[in-house]
Amino acid sequence: MGVEGGPVLPPDLLSAPVLEEAVTTALGREPRLLVIDLTGVTFIASVGMTILLKAHRDGGRNLRLRVVAPERSSVARALELVGLTEILGVASTRADALAR
């Protein structure tokens, strides 16, 4: 998991505060584009999905949120199963996320 080069941690109950703090800090800069890279993450709990949705909500209309989750990964599949692929702007690579 990375938000502007953050650590690689699965977004679960133990690491959720780290992800939430990184997202809050990034949103505080009022970016036009925020890419949250979940490449290398093998599991995402509901608390992680909640943080991603909160980022989408808190970013407002001017924010383009992109979440990187490689195709066929368990994270991409989980986000797809709960219907978050479109809402969170899920892309399979960082390059795809930046190009959208």
Automatic annotation (TrEMBL):
Keyword Nucleotide-binding belongs to the record: no
Transmembrane regions: 33-53
Keyword Transmembrane helix attached: yes
Record domain STAS: where: 12-100
Keywords: Membrane, Transmembrane, Transmembrane helix
Alphabetized Pfam families for the sequence: STAS (PF01740)
Leader peptide range in chain numbering: none
Source organism, top-level taxon: Bacteria
Protein name as annotated: STAS domain-containing protein
Organism: Amycolatopsis bullii
